Amino acid sequence: MQFGIFTVGDVTPDPTTGRTPTERERIKAMVAIALKAEEVGLDVFATGEHHNPPFVPSSPTTMLGYVAARTEKLILSTSTTLITTNDPVKIAEDFAMLQHLADGRVDLMMGRGNTGPVYPWFGKDIREGINLAVENYALLHRLWREDVVTWEGKFRTPLQGFTSTPRPLDGVAPFVWHGSIRSPEIAEQAAYYGDGFFHNNIFWPADHTKRMIELYRNRYAHYGHGTPEQAIVGLGGQVFMRKNSQDAVREFRPYFDVAPVYGHGPSLEDFTAQTPLTVGSPQQVIEKTLAFRDYAGDYQRQLFLMDHAGLPLKTVLEQLDLLGEEVVPVLREEFAKNRPAEVPDAPTHASLLAAARKEREDRQEGARA
After folding, report:
1. Taking CA 10 as the corner, what is the angle to CA 260 and CA 293, rounded to the nearest 5 degrees?
2. What is the pLDDT of residues 149-170, one digit of tens each?
3. Which stretches are tagged as biased composition: Basic and acidic residues (predicted)?
4. Which end of the chain is less enclosed by CB atoms within 10 A, N or C?
């Protein structure tokens, strides 16, 4: 399994001090968090994409390219690439460029986002959100796999004999996760292409997440990509830890109470009881995260949200120390136990390249036969 962190890049006042970081401070903090993730032995850093205050990550490939230059092993991803409002040609080119710069340490997560006003800002109609996601990804998928593309659709101008540049590194497209919280159409889309399905797994109860993942797994098998157990699943999660669970609850409560999206709503106790949010000791984080397998099956990627709601950088870096030193090593060991041999590892550029070479060799062998 791969373990990592994802960020939404919110610029939120610290409720304990009243101070709001500047945009520059928040951007620099995101970089520091990414570098810390590699230092403590995590596998993945993923950034969201937003085009409205109070968020700063409007240009994910710019940030990830900078992080790529300062890291060696970290897989660089997005936790949302807006497939609905971005031009698929630009996505194809931007992420292929990032692939080359990062020596293949790149994948991305397609999503529609959760900010309605972004659609008209980019000349799109929110009522067409699902249709945009389907059509734009169909084009993106071809742009990475065909050297010359002729195409016509509903939402952008046609292409005639078009080649996106640069071509994907080693002829292998970046691996794509399709992220959704509640849309079965997106689980279906991921299954159709044999791509990964990522469930945010922060706001919804386990029975909802289970239904979405089961839908994806069954449809993945339906389209002939393998068994349901071989489908590629990722989960999000949010944690806040201290050595002593009471200290964690006391420290995190003021941040939870005013957090974007879920603040001013259910109590911290109700929210942690009803969703995957874990606030407590490292051992409590381990136990609750391991329980994800009960409803998600054996899965490939676990990302944690750790820098939300105005938490100061110092606190987030302390959280990452605990995650890397006390939590992830145990999770790696425990998740590996009784993991069926047929369950695949999380895709990487190296594994995708090896699979592509084997496929070519098999075709050549079949042609000779």
Report:
1. 70
2. 999 999 999 999 999 999 999 9
3. 356-369
4. C
Q: Where are the alpha helices (DSSP H) in the chain?
A: 23-39, 60-69, 88-101, 118-121, 129-145, 184-193, 206-222, 245-257, 268-274, 282-290, 292-296, 313-322, 328-336, 349-368
Using one digit for the tens of pLDDT, what is the confidence trace for 54-68? Answer: 899 999 999 999 999
Round to whole Å and give the CA distance between 97 and 65: 9
Q: How many CB atoms sit inside 10 A of residue 184's CB?
A: 13
Q: Which two tokens stand for residue 158?
A: 């046609």
Average pLDDT of the residues in 294-305: 96
Cα–chain center distance at 114: 15
| % of the chain at pLDDT higher than 90 | 83
Contacts of 152 (CB under 8 A, 6+ apart): 158, 159
Instruction: Return all residues near 15 (Cβ < 8 A) that are at least 6 apart.
Output: 254, 255, 257, 258, 310
pLDDT recorded at residue 363: 83
In angstroms, the first-to-last Cα distance of the chain is 38
Instruction: Determine contact, residues 192/219, Cβ cutoff 8 Å.
Output: yes
SS3 assignment, position 45:
strand
**Rounded Cα gap, residues 324 and 249, in angstroms:** 21
Tell me if 77 sits within 8 A of 126, measured CB to CB.
Answer: no
The overall average pLDDT reported for the chain is 94
At 318-331, the pLDDT tens digits run 999 999 999 999 99
C-beta atoms surrounding 344 within 10 Å: 14
Dist CA 180 CA 198 (whole Å): 7
Q: Which two tokens stand for residue 62?
A: 């710019």
Phi, psi of 85 (to 5 degrees): -110, -10
pTM for this predicted structure: 0.95
**DSSP count for the chain of H helices, then E strands:** 14, 13
SS3 category, 266: coil
From residue 309, how far is each of 156, 218, 312 by CA, in Å?
37, 36, 9
